[in-house]
Amino acid sequence: MATMADVARSAGVSVATVSHVLNGTRPVLPHTRQAVLDAVDALGYTPNTLARSLVTSRTRSIGLAVSAISNPYFTEILQGVEAAALEAGYSLLIADPHDDPAHERKVVQLLHERRVDGMIVAPSAHPHDLVAYLGRHEVPTVFLDRVLPEQARFDQVCAENEGPTARIVTHLAGLGHRRIGLVAGLPGLSTTAERITGYQQGLAAAGLAHDKGLVVSGNSESAGAERATAALLSLPTPPTALVTANNAMTIGALRALRREGLTVPDDIALCCFDDFAWADLFSPRLTAVAQPSREIGAQAVRVLLDRLADPSRPARTVRLPCTLVHRTSCGCPEDRDEIAGARDARPAGTGGTTEPAALCAHSASAHSALPALSEKGTAS
């Protein structure tokens, strides 16, 4: 097995120079750096990460704790984290806290005991023990997706939630809907609170009253959303449009609508927060808010690396903009020319137009006569 000394002899430099090239601890002339890298490749040299960590007190590893890794949204975040970490020369240790505060505290401690240099964590709805542990041990941490406004000492990276949700509501109102239901997420999460606020802002902007009975928690999961949607449909005056606050709840809502024999958008319009790869394959095609999930993951790594480079820097919260991907489940007619013209601009894996102006391209008058739903949830 080749050693660092072998690399140094082959490149005609000192062992210290090899170390500086591999660890980035001091600038090295380009031709010298290339000679070292060529020698590394030729000899098949593999750095001894364990030995390096004993000297530097760094393992060049990052701990990632996110729940529901099977969720496409978090899967794409994971891809963004992994790509950015690899590019920076860091490995990744992953744990699933299952949105359980006790389990969350345990897995974060386990990651810390593995001597990760820092952590990226999507906190649960009740992260008191998590925050206490991270603060007590001064673990460099970036909170991901779900922010904790009261925790000014931690860096945080998330998407915009209020504005995009308000845009969905105002769009539905512009199509003539006056009773717009919201299937909200798990209580206690910042994403849930912010999307509810956005929903209320959208109603206010459209001049609609806020009816608390039209907001039901789906607990951020499919089965909960199915129950929540059924509850909304059972109201004496059911909503004529639904907004679902994440992709898993969209699936649950669709199940409930199918069970009631309702079709989208003929009987009820549907818009969702979180776009996903197969949203364009549904019939009708789902109008959705697309979060920049991979960029959220990559940005979290960059913020963490900044924290590791300068532990004393002020904490910051980075919010990334979302895109409204306009399709047809909202009740707008299919415009094939419009869709074809927008394909080059849309996010990867989605279909439909991403231009905000497209929401104004369809006349509300064409939808002013919306079907009313009876108590049994059928068109009347």
Features of the shown structure:
380 residues, alpha/beta, six-stranded parallel β-sheet, six-stranded mixed β-sheet, disordered C terminus
Which SSEs are present, and which pair or pack?
Elements (H helix, E strand, L loop, with lengths): L3 H8 L3 H9 L6 H14 L5 H8 L4 E5 L6 H16 L3 E5 L5 H13 L4 E4 L6 H9 L4 E4 L10 E5 L2 H13 L5 E5 L5 H16 L9 E3 L4 H12 L7 E4 L2 H13 L9 E5 L13 E4 L2 H17 L7 E4 L2 E3 L10 H7 L38
Parallel strand pairs: 1-2, 1-3, 3-4, 4-5, 5-11, 6-7, 6-8, 8-9, 9-10
Antiparallel strand pairs: 10-12
Helix pairs in contact: 1-2, 1-3, 5-12, 6-7, 8-9, 10-11
Structure description:
- This protein is α/β, with parallel strands linked by helices and 380 residues long.
- Helices cover 41% and strands 13% of the residues.
- The chain contains 13 helices and twelve strands.
- It has helices at residues 4-11, 15-23, 30-43, 49-56, 72-87, 101-113, 128-136, 162-174, 190-205, 222-233, 247-259, 293-309, 336-342; strands at residues 61-65, 91-95, 118-121, 141-144, 155-159, 180-184, 215-217, 241-244, 269-273, 287-290, 317-320, 323-325.
- Strands 2-1-3-4-5-11 form a six-stranded parallel beta sheet, with helices on both faces. It has a six-stranded mixed beta sheet with strand order 7-6-8-9-10-12, with helices on both faces.
- Helix 1 (4-11) packs across helix 3, helix 8 runs parallel beside helix 9 and helix 10 crosses helix 11.
- The longest helix is centred in the C-terminal third of the chain and has 17 residues, at 293-309.
- The chain is elongated, with a radius of gyration of 25 Å.
- The chain starts with a helix and ends in a 38-residue tail after the last helix.
